[in-house]
Write a structure and sequence with these properties.
Blueprint lengths: L17 E13 L5 E13 L3 E5 L6 H9 L6 E6 L2 E2 L7 E4 L11 H11 L5 H13 L15 H13 L5 E5 L7 H18 L2 E6 L2 H7 L2 E5 L4 E8 L14 H14 L4
Parallel strand pairs: 2-10, 3-8, 3-9, 6-7, 7-8
Antiparallel strand pairs: 1-2, 1-4, 4-5, 9-10
This protein binds adenosine-5'-triphosphate and magnesium ion.
Length: 269
């Protein structure tokens, strides 16, 4: 796969302005009149504009909940949540979301699935259709615009879902284990594709994964959540240069970062 996943001169995230600001985010769910269930205890970190941040943590620790809070899909019990300088209290136009399952509409063609978010916005003009086609080309699906989801492989469906998440040019891309259902080889291809897209769109990405290697390979920063109720177990700056290629996975630096994440998760000593 071509390795163009970093544009020349991309601003280092360290120097970039803050795009997402999370302070003392806490989430509890009310189970009954007398019982509250604390999913997230206390999470604080900043998201630099254009950065790629992975959330890594054990099952049930609150990662999906945190993504939903960042997108305004659920309201945190307390804490400060700001995206692009605005308090997040309801779903906002700045984000696109992709999930583990592509969730495509089977009765719609590939192109019409990608255009769906724009239909909801009442904008399916020529410019938007061109953008949808350009995105499909970017993910290697040129020529498949009129196919139906059932005629595509799982990896191809996930590429369509990625285009759908990007079609309204979101500043923030929220991804919840988007490659979890793919085989290892397709997964690695999708990781490179995502870095490529990130370089071309300059979107800020918050990416949930269970895979330590995936988190290290993709990210500027890996935020490790503790087991529920979540606090930050470690905040790992990934100093590996972009563009990243498969060889880097075998470097001592990569292994050390994986080891550190493993320690934060309590897997290794
Ligand atoms: N609407 C809800 N009402 C009550 N409890 C909830 C609700 N949503 C999530 N939870 C609970 O909050 C905790 C965190 O859930 P969440 O889905 O965020 O975990 P996760 O880290 O994404 O897990 P996984 O890695 O398995 O996807 C879980 O124990 C879950 O049961
Ligand atoms: Mg989840």
């Amino acid at each position: 796969m071509e390795q163009s996943n970093q544009p020349p001169g991309r601003r280092q995230p360290d120097a970039a302005p803050t795009f997402g600001h999370f302070r003392n985010v806490r989430q509890q769910f009310r189970l009954s009149a007398h019982t509250n269930f604390v999913a997230i205890e206390d999470i604080s970190f900043d998201l630099k504009a254009g950065s790629f941040v992975s959330l890594l943590g054990p099952s049930g620790c609150g990662k999906t909940t945190f993504l939903k809070i960042a997108g305004g899909l659920i309201r945190a019990s307390s804490g400060v949540i700001q995206i692009n300088g605005h308090d997040v209290t309801e779903p906002h136009a700045d984000f696109g979301m992709a999930f583990q399952q592509p969730n495509l509409m089977p009765w719609r063609t590939v192109l019409k699935n990608v255009l769906f978010p724009m239909e909801l916005r009442g904008d399916t003009g020529a410019g938007v259709r061109r953008r949808a086609r350009d995105l499909l080309k970017l993910v290697g699906l040129e020529g498949f615009e009129d196919y139906y989801p059932a005629q595509l492989s799982g990896g191809m469906q996930q590429r369509v879902a990625l285009c759908r998440a990007l079609v309204h040019e979101p500043k923030l891309l929220l991804m919840d284990e988007p490659f979890g259902a793919l085989d290892e080889l397709t997964r690695m291809e999708m990781q490179d594709l995502l870095l490529d897209i990130r370089a071309k769109t300059s979107a800020t990405i918050m990416f949930v994964t269970h895979s330590i290697a995936e988190a290290v390979y993709l990210s500027d920063v890996v935020v490790v959540f503790s087991k529920r109720p979540a606090v930050i177990a470690d905040y790992i700056d990934v100093s590996l240069a972009y563009p990243r290629s498969a060889e880097i996975r075998y470097s001592a630096e990569f292994t050390e970062l994986e080891h550190r994440a493993g320690r934060a998760l309590g897997i290794t000593q």
